[in-house]
Amino acid sequence: MLILLGFGGTNQAIAESYAPVLVFDDNFNTLSYDDFGNALYPSAYLPEVLSTHLDAQIITSPGIPPSNTMVQTALSFIKQYPSMHFLSEYDFFASKMPASVWISGTNGKTTTTQMLTHLLQSFGAQSGGNIGTPLAKLDFNAPLWVLETSSFTLHYTEIAKPNLYLLLPISQDHISWHGSYADYIADKLKPILSLGEKEIAILPKSVEGHSYCKESLGKLIFYENANDLAKEFGLDLKQIHFKEPFLLDATLALCAEKILFLQNNYALLNAFKIGAHKMEEFYDKAGNLWVDDSKGTNIDATMEALKCYQDKKILLVLGGDDKGADLSPLFGVIQRLEVEIFAIGSNTEKLCALAQGIAQCQACYTLEVAVKSIKQRLLESKDSKNYVAMLSPAAASLDQFSSYKERGEKFKLNALS
Questions:
Q1: How distant, in Å, are the alpha carbons of 158, 166, 194, 207, 208 from that of 213?
Q2: Would you place residue 237 in the very low, low, confident or very high pLDDT band (cuts 50, 70, 90)?
Q3: Domain for residue 257, yes or no?
Q4: How far is Cα 163 from Cα 195, in angstroms, rounded to an integer?
Q5: What is the pLDDT of residues 311-343, one digit of tens each?
Q6: Structural domain includes residue 153
Q7: How far is residue 358's CA from residue 352's CA, in Å, rounded to a whole number?
Q8: E strand spans, 149-274
Q9: pLDDT of residue 90
Q10: Are both 407 and 304 inside the same structural domain?
């Protein structure tokens, strides 16, 4: 029997393809059935059902934290009944998965995944995973999968492994989910423990001393920046039209292309278009510059965004669910620049407290109020052309929005209205 914990997009795709299955979710109030015949149980029913399905395959949604009662219950049963199996989405499809490149890191993994898939489109590569397409919806006959892989998925994955692993730089993120920064790093490095001698991982130099790197049998290539990778792989950075924060993403994609197919197609790479909500510039009717960086969901992303506009006065919309991260490095960068903060979301008061003595900070609480305040600030300014109004929240969006996309769209809509 197949049992699913959580009913997000990943498990919905599995339930559709493998119906009928049993689904448990904290948001279900009563037992019901969907159009595919899947039974949808409130999570409280899990112990009772597991006790009658001692050979169950249990798949957890990647976003459910290890501390969740459903996960803890499942793990306690598995300790008693070896015939039960607890699987990630990747583990469930491990035996069917074609050759794969896994891409992870704190920032840039979506863009790198998209760039590499763009470069390898003529070879039939498909992208999926955290980028939006569940593995159940991919073509298992495709020659190659390029998978954006979250730390959540890596935490639960024990069987599946990549053929090539690309890890972008790591900074504090999802600390409340993982429990500590050390555990977050360990989960990000977990795939290198499964690599064979001829399999490659490209990793940030900051993790070179980690015990997993010493244990790995794979060929590990460490980098500090795009220049390091260019030297290692014989790349010409002058032929890449992207600048930071996208230069490193582009360079990693080219490295993977060279490893896999011994070629580099700079022209095809340069034809790639960066997606919405990532350092997306637009102008209002008065000609003022606005930047939608709603994808900047952690401090590292926001710090990089700020550095791109360090020659301007920055009106920064900041805040949301910061996931327990230490925000002091961000305020260290803010202190060196001309930044005014318009705080929103569940950590508004925390941001205002951190800003004392460092930067002017308005407690706006909502995006609408923040944008309205910025408009007034630009109207009052005598040199608004020297300003940039930026949404780069260094926080997740789910405290007030359904996604970072909704947050970015509302930012742009309010700015242009």
A1: 17, 14, 11, 8, 6
A2: very high
A3: yes
A4: 7
A5: 999 999 999 999 888 999 999 999 999 999 999
A6: yes
A7: 10
A8: 164-167, 200-204, 219-223
A9: 98
A10: yes
